[in-house]
Specification:
By secondary structure, this protein is α+β, with helices and mostly antiparallel strands. The protein has 4 helices and 12 strands; from the N terminus they run βαββαββββααβββββ. Bound molecules: biotin. It catalyses: biotin + L-lysyl-[protein] + ATP = N(6)-biotinyl-L-lysyl-[protein] + AMP + diphosphate + H(+).
């Protein structure tokens, strides 16, 4: 059963969900905040969180037989893409591992954090606002022409879409989730630069996503490189 909770303001819905997980909260719970004062992004970055955008977190308790936990990033990306794509004037695509871009500008981000058998999945969607002054293009649903988009209504639809893709991941495994992700991600051959967590930068072209959810990069010399973590810059 899905349970949606709302708070006007918090530090981070991921941090709050972590506290709920420690109290034993079951799967299916969602927490949404109107604004965050300490929103967390990937790679230790902050996530600007003014009123008007969607900030929410849920949890999945890993059960025996589940696919690899980190592949929940693909479940979340499929759900967020399905929510956003029909509302945007431009083309929405998934960027590995789990950003959603519209015509190359970031509109949503997903942050997975693990606590014991629980994976916390935090989702931020730019609805009415997007940050300015970044070194990368960003956009929002309103900037994409979805003038009526509203965070609360989006939250309900997102919870349904996430439950749908989680059910497929559990019942059928990663393959159908991966296949759908590939249809909606950057096409094979897309040039990209990968900044790995240790700072190493690798240039290449997107080849595919392997069955562990790793990005397979084709290097200029024809070799393949499997990337398990990093920041992707489309070049
Ligand atoms: O860097 C990214 O792309 C991931 C951003 C994730 C932001 C969301 S907003 C709701 C949840 N709470 C957080 O503190 N972060 C995530």
């Amino acid at each position: 059963m899905t349970l949606l909770r709302f708070v006007e303001e918090t530090g981070s819905t991921n941090a709050d969900m972590l506290a709920l997980v420690e109290q034993g909260v079951p799967e299916g719970n969602w927490l949404r905040a109107g604004r965050q004062t300490g929103g967390r992004g990937r790679m230790g970055r902050a996530w600007e969180s003014p009123v008007g955008n969607l900030y929410c977190s849920t949890l999945v308790r890993i059960a025996p037989g589940d696919p690899l936990p980190h592949t929940l990033a693909l479940v979340a990306a499929n759900a967020v893409h399905a929510l956003i794509a029909p509302l945007c004037a431009g083309q929405a695509r998934i960027k590995w591992p789990n950003d959603i871009l519209v015509d190359g500008a970031k509109i949503a981000g997903i942050l997975l954090e693990r606590f014991g058998d629980a994976i916390i999945i935090g989702i931020g969607i730019n609805v009415t606002h997007h940050p300015t002054g970044l070194d990368r293009p960003v956009t929002s649903l309103v900037a994409q022409g979805a003038a009526d988009a509203e965070a609360g209504a989006l939250m309900e639809r997102l919870a349904q879409l996430f439950a749908h893709w989680l059910g497929i991941w559990r019942a059928q495994g990663l393959d159908p989730v991966r296949a759908h992700w590939l249809i909606n991600a950057h096409p094979t051959g897309t040039p990209m630069r990968v900044v790995q967590p240790d700072g190493e930068v690798v240039e290449g072209a997107f080849d595919t996503l392997d069955r562990q959810g790793m990005l397979i990069l084709r290097l200029a010399n024809g070799e393949s490189r499997a990337i398990h973590a990093g920041d992707i810059i489309l070049t």
